[in-house]
Design a protein that fits this description.
The chain has 623 residues and is an alpha+beta fold. Helix content is 23%, strand content 27%. Helix 3 crosses helix 4. The longest helix has 18 residues. It is globular, with a radius of gyration of 24 Å. The protein starts with a helix and ends in a 6-residue tail after the last strand. The N terminus is likely disordered.
Length: 623
């Protein structure tokens, strides 16, 4: 069975089981500067790095590591083996992966055979309360983070490890790498983090102050489902196995998963606001402690699309760091490589570890600092930094009649009514993205062409066809003026789409904001050429704004997540505006009724010039 289909089925199964049971951007310009800890003279082109297998096989063993409180974590160790499968004696540079997806069930691999056969040991560990490990899971909480440090200390002292440790893995397994690096263990020499999260609240859980109903239950259901599935370890010691399973089910229902989802859905608990709970679980808050070479892989339609380039931005001044962003959702990361000289991810990881764990001159430092796929051009390009050093702020105004123009609107231009319908976007590119790519398995045209949504529930503003290619690279900000028809809460969804000459509308990126969370912290917002281009909203209870008064014009500064796009000559740039983006965001139940009823007016006159500011980059910079 196709891996993505298999994983999608497991994700849905996890959701079914679940039902049963700072360093963020801070008032900085994106102009100027260099790569800090990076090699300033880094090449802006790729060169191939291929190293043949050193060993024909791998040998795998299992065991446990006892933590400070007596909890035992399960691990699996893979080491190089000879042609008969006999493990090679000696110490190896070692790769560490810490996962919540059960190392006994290889649906989401936590070990990389390609790396092991090239002379590395690879140890994979089930984090506390997941897989076959004891304890209670609390999703990157303080106990789990403390375990990361103990695990790497234990690993560095084992006879199979030569004292040089790198970390590797995707998603959950990428996030644990960054938290582990924050412990600053001297054996930890390099990170290869594939699609990691940066800011738990803003990136994924409560985008724009609304609950991500698409991914969070799915993810927690996946971890829980894979944890309570009986494995070989369960049957080896039935009594202990039964106790583990019972504990995991109880913890899911009363300790962490169900309570967190219930709080998010109802809006009854404190975790609906940003605060210590989410900051503790946000890797961006720990980047000042990370001083080892870090390779970040991201996706233009990944669930962590916002935070991946921001992690690179925060790490690049600490040590050599690289950023690769492809045209991927969460399930398709790495698909299509090699392309445009960009290699597959496993050879790239070997190149990274050969340089920083084995001391080989593999050329890792000369890898381009930033490599991004360009939608529209449909190819990879490189640059010396992110945000792009030559980006310039350009503002496009929403105009009466559905135009999008760099000319200011005139006095008296009429606005447009927007229906407050909380299920807009249920079949869209956004719904594919925010269900981690699961819905991409469905053969529905509305998942790839936004035209149906635009004709039913969204209002659109479109440029005339471009006379020449138009290059955008980085975060955007939509400044949307609205006037409510009643004194209730309002939500604004912004989609940026690429409209082809044939009229097709491909969603490129999106943003979301609830009006009650419109308060800004200007000191933490990003500016370009004196214009705010990435707003930072506190999302705290104390910062809540009152509901817009009936007919009262209110400005919402909507963060639109970063992308890289060329609008080809003859094509157009479009904004599609709605009141919601389901399942990406759903207001908590206590606010839902306030966003169901009525219509709000989207204002587009000279006194209320709704617009979007984009980071435009000269075409001459494309390499």
């Amino acid at each position: 069975m196709n891996f993505r289909i298999q994983l999608a089925l497991v994700l849905f199964a996890g959701l079914s089981l679940m039902a049963c049971g700072s360093n963020d951007s801070s008032n900085i310009s994106v102009n100027g500067g260099d790569a800090g800890g990076n090699q300033a003279s880094a090449s802006q082109s790729w060169s191939s790095y291929e190293r043949a297998e050193e060993y024909p096989n791998i040998s795998t063993t299992a065991g446990t590591i006892e933590m400070r409180d007596g909890i035992k974590l399960a691990y699996s160790l893979a080491v190089p083996a000879d042609a008969e499968g006999k493990p090679i004696e000696g110490a190896f540079p070692t790769v560490l992966t810490q996962t919540g997806y059960n190392i006994s069930i290889p649906v989401i691999p936590a070990s990389n055979e390609y790396i092991v056969k090239r002379g590395y040991a690879h140890m994979s560990v089930d984090v506390r309360g997941t897989g076959s490990s004891g304890g209670n899971w609390d999703a990157f909480g303080p106990d789990e983070q403390a375990d990361y440090g103990e695990v790497i200390s234990w690993l560095a002292e084992q006879p199979f490890c030569d004292g040089n440790v790198g970390s590797w893995g995707a998603s959950f397994m990428a996030i644990t790498q960054l938290f582990t690096a924050a412990h600053q263990h001297p054996a930890h020499k390099a990170i290869f983090a594939i699609v990691p999260m940066a800011d738990a609240y803003r990136d994924i859980v409560y985008t724009g102050g609304q609950t991500n109903i698409g991914f969070i239950p799915l993810w927690m259901g996946l971890v829980t489902g894979l944890t309570i599935v009986p494995t070989a370890n369960t049957f080896d010691d039935p009594q202990a196995g039964f106790e583990y399973l019972l504990n995991d089910i109880i913890n899911a229902g009363t300790g962490f998963q169900v309570p967190i989802i219930a709080d998010a859905a109802t809006g009854a608990g404190p975790t609906q606001y940003d605060g210590e709970f989410w900051r503790t679980r946000s890797t961006i808050e720990y980047t000042d402690r990370i001083h080892i070479p870090s390779f970040i892989v991201g996706g233009l339609n990944d669930i962590f699309q916002r935070g991946e380039p921001m992690l690179y931005e925060a790490l690049k001044n600490n040590a050599t760091s690289k950023l690769l962003i492809g045209p991927w959702n969460h399930l398709t990361t790495g698909e299509g490589l090699p392309k445009d000289e960009v290699p597959e991810l496993s050879p790239l990881a070997v190149q990274w570890f050969d340089q920083y764990l084995r001391g080989m001159d593999s050329g890792a430092e000369d890898v381009p600092n930033v490599t991004q796929y360009l939608y529209g051009a449909e190819r990879y390009v490189t640059s010396s930094d992110w945000p792009h050093p030559q980006a310039q702020a350009e503002r496009w105004y929403l105009r009466e009649g559905g135009g999008l123009s760099q000319a200011m609107p005139a006095e008296g231009e009429a606005g447009t009514n927007v229906l407050q319908l909380p299920i807009n976007g249920v079949c869209s590119g956004s719904s594919v993205q925010w269900t981690a790519g699961v819905l991409a398995q469905l053969p529905l045209p509305c998942l790839t062409d936004n035209g149906l949504n635009e004709s039913l529930t969204e209002v659109t503003f479109t440029t005339v066809p471009m006379a020449e290619d138009y290059y955008i690279n980085g975060p955007m900000q939509a400044d949307i003026w609205i006037a409510a028809t009643m004194s209730l809460d309002v939500g604004v969804s912004v989609k940026v789409t690429l409209v082809g000459p044939d009229g097709s509308s491909k969603e490129i990126t999106n943003g979301l904001l609830a009006a009650r969370h419109r308060a800004l912290d200007v000191s933490r917002s990003r500016f370009l050429d004196g214009q705010m281009i990435q707003p930072w909203h506190p999302f705290t209870e104390e910062a809540l704004s009152p509901a817009p008064g009936v007919g009262e014009p209110v400005l919402l500064n909507v963060e639109v997540f970063p992308t890289s796009l060329v609008v080809p000559a003859g094509s157009s740039l479009r904004l599609a505006i709605a009141a919601s983006d389901f399942p990406h965001g759903l207001p908590p139940l206590i606010d839902l009724a306030d966003q169901v009823l009525g219509v709000y007016e989207l204002l587009t006159d000279a006194a209320h010039p709704s617009s979007i500011v984009v980071p435009a980059v000269p075409l001459s910079t494309i390499q």
